[in-house]
Design a protein that fits this description.
With 411 residues, this protein is mainly α. The protein folds into 2 domains: 145 residues, no CATH class; 175 residues. Helix content is 78%, strand content 0%. The protein is built from 18 helices and no strands. The longest helix is centred in the first third of the chain and has 54 residues. The termini are far apart.
Length: 411
Amino acid sequence: MSPEEATPSPAPPAEPDPDQQPAGDAEAPPTVGTGPTAGVLERSRSLIGTPTGLLLALAGVVIILYGMRYAAGILNSIFLALFVVMGITPLIHWLRRKGLAPWATLVVVLVLFVVIILLFLAVMAASLTQLDDKLPVYKENLSQVTADARAWFDDQGIDISGLVSGALSPTSLIDIAAGLIKGGINALTNIGLMIFIVLFMISETFSFPRKFTDNVKMNPRVRQSFERFSGTVRTYLFTKAWLSAIMTVIVAIIYYAFGVDFALLWALIFFVFSFIPNIGFVLAVIPPFFVALLESGFWTAFVVIILVIVFNTIVDNVISPRVMGQSVGLSSLVVFLSLILWAWVLGGVGALIAVPMTLMVKLLFLDSYESTRPISQFMETGILDEHRKRRRRRKQEKEAAAGVGASGNSD
């Protein structure tokens, strides 16, 4: 046997798996020359680092945002339905863990959702109609309040006649309130599409994830981003919903106790507006304050608002951090800017879903690619939030150490 025959021929190079990432880095760029598309991939990953690439990326973002704004009428229903379904998914899983059959779980959730929506719509429609009927009474009371305020300022040597007769005149304020009421009534007729989308999404709760994972092959990092997005948004929405429900019951009791007109309406508005970050609480307490002011006077309105502020502070700063655990990972500045952006793009619905929409962009897109990960890190919690997290972590470590020491002494 010749040496050439005894020496085994080298094995052909293995075909690279496009779906498999190198060990040690989940998104390491492919080596140039490993395939016909390697150079294209390398250039696409470094494109955003150039001024031209940055301008192209910004131009693409602007085009997408304007397209979303143009299609807001349809996108609002789709996004709102998506996040509603994600918010009630923990309830579905809880019912399944209790041994309920899949079809029975879907029936229970569907019936519960329809009943809650119908009750909500009935209360809103009836309250808004009654509020429209009481506007003349409020107009008369408002005229008396503005006359008293003008007399008080005149005694102090301050002339507010121009302000009272202009933007703050009773007629102007009542016209604004009437416009808001009509807009609210019209909005009730535009959520029918969202309700149907929610019903179909709930019916696909068990089958859609299996179809998606079986038919779509994703990069491991992208798959991880989907899982993080789903878990984070689902936990945030579900926990925020039941914490807001507790606060809604407290607010309704306060309004009823002080005889504020349309207490149930203001409580429901408080629940909805609690999903608007930063300014939702302020927007929710302004209407009942003015109603209490016109009905019962300044001091009653003042006491009502102070009680609501106190209980809301307790829920937000004592109960919420303990229940929600880790935050959604967004700085306060980013949350506020996202509120402005999504309200401009999608309108009022955008303000309600500003946090979930920002988490979707951050976790599904920015975290999934190496070139955009610095932007995602910039959006994360700020210095004050990190300081609070470190303090909570040190406190938990001290409590754990104290518990271990106590158990050791008992032994």
